[in-house]
Amino acid sequence: METEVSQSIQLPSITHPVRIIGSRTFDFSRQIAVMAIVNRTPDSFYDQGRTFALDRAVEAAVQAANDGADWVDIGGVPFAPGPELPLVEELDRVIPVIEALAAESDVVISVDTFRPEVAEAAIAAGAAVINDTTGIHDPRLADVVADSAASLVITHSLAAPRQPYPKPRYADVAGDVTAFLADRIDLARAHGVPDERIIVDPGHDLNKNTRQTLELTRRFGEVVALGFPTLAAVSNKDFIGETLGRDKADRLAGSLAAATVSALLGARIVRMHDVTAAVDAMHMVEAILGWREPAYAVHNV
Questions:
Q1: Surface-to-core class of residue 215, CB atoms within 10 Å of its CB (0-12 exposed, 13-18 middle, 19+ buried)
Q2: Among candidates 215, 197, 196, which has minimal Cα distance to 205?
Q3: Annotated catalytic, 237?
């Protein structure tokens, strides 16, 4: 079912568009949230350790909130293949940042983790969202979320956590991703996570090559049609670099274009590194869709 926004733009409906996440309320029938990224890792694909130090991570998280981010997503383990990080070290990386940010701001805090132990500690520390980029690889994580008030982001990816997945193949990338997410939604429900606390993410670039991710992006509406708020994590990713021939430092324009297209196709959360630019872009989309009034209006008045 679709809700008409204008004569030329139509967006699929969301079953539970109004969400209370942490201390904030979102109406995803007319709002696009910006999720900032703070990686407390020495080897994240984009930051390369810039926010690994605790004080730098906290400073970046608070600054993102001050710059207008609706959410701040804190991660202690990269998605990319690599050696297993001990549980205690992941906890030491993310929990102090969550606690410090919660003390400074009412911004929604999410934690990027696939471990149920980290999810439980993060929720206790103030996180309102668990962002699992492994598609509930460990079903115990769904149990943790079900026993809390937190929301769960279910992301499409095929590999076991931090394991390589060379040369991914799909019979139909958008159809396969949507079917995977539908199956994982059923798993989350079976473990007690209600629909109004489920968010989905098709996983741009995660176990996908550039052509697959481009096709998935232009068919983003098929994922949105599952009826859940859908996250587009497109910022500075390799599909943008390979498409434009741009190094990581020069992918902002491509990232904003990918986020805007995703939003027009139904994305309701965009995960972005450059908060100020992303907030402006999404506010502009909201205004064009008739959801936001201009900050002021003097031109030709």
A1: middle
A2: 215
A3: yes
Q: Is 197 helix (H, G, I), strand (E, B) or coil?
A: helix
Please say if 271 is a catalytic residue.
Answer: yes
**Between β-strands 33-39 and 71-75, what pairing exists: parallel, antiparallel or unpaired?**
parallel
> Using CA atoms, how far apart are residues 214 and 220, in angstroms rounded to an integer?
10
Task: Please give the Cα distance from 238 to 252 (Å, whole number).
Answer: 12
pTM of the model: 0.93
The enclosing H or E element of 275 equals helix 275-288
Beta bridge partners of 11: 3
The ranges assigned to domains in the chain are 12-288
The radius of gyration of the chain's CA atoms, rounded to the nearest angstrom, is: 18
Length of the chain: 301
Of 68, 70, 65, 67, the closest CA to residue 97 belongs to 65
Of these residues, 115, 237, 251, 268, which one is catalytic?
Answer: 237
Q: Which of 93, 115, 219, 271 is catalytic?
A: 271
pLDDT along the chain (301 residues), means of 10: 54 91 97 96 67 89 97 93 92 97 97 98 98 97 98 96 91 98 98 98 97 98 97 97 96 98 97 98 97 96 94
Fold annotation for 12-288: TIM Barrel (3.20.20)
In terms of DSSP bridges, do strands 269-272 and 18-21 run parallel, antiparallel, or are they unpaired? Answer: unpaired
